[in-house]
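G.,

No rush on this.
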Amino acid sequence: MPWPVRDHAAVGLPASFELPVVGHLDALADLSAGAAYLEWRRYRHAAALHTDLVLAEEDRDERAVDAYAQCAARIATALSVSQYVAERLLDNAVALRDRLPRVFGTAPGSVDI
């Protein structure tokens, strides 16, 4: 379902832009939190693809286009981005998963500061 036709109220967004100033500020804060959550989910899915497609082939992969490049190509196709952008996304996802597992395992908004 395209994002513009989804139920905005279901995710806590105001149905219109006819709001007082504080309403706009609250909406901006909610949108930032939502964007952080969606980005976290994007990294989690990229890392899961890496686990499924790359780690399984890592020790025996001697192809000219290795499993990492193929995984990034699938991401590039799905997101309509370049191979370079997809490889950076995959790099970041793997770094978060492997180097910062406590951060990676904690969903945005689930920690009170």
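When you get to it, here's the other one too:
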Amino acid sequence: MASFMDLNVRDLDVYMNMRATGLTRRSLKDVAERLRALLKHLLRTGRMAPRPRPHVIAPLLYACEGIPSACARIRSRPSWISLE
């Protein structure tokens, strides 16, 4: 039976790759933050070996990312359509 004491960086990579399929960058960032919180809890409670903690890297998000933009829709219209 596997234990959190045996957890290594490769295990975390496999897990994140499995979870990343079909997720947006925002959702992937949420998964990474939750995984970081779990690892921190395991270290604090002594359920994970106190070796150098693996870093879980989340994607960078930009201001207003994921918010639909009306400007993008307007720019994508053909030039012969009048907006007036």
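The mean pLDDT is 78. Residues 4-75 form one domain.

Enjoy the weekend,
O.
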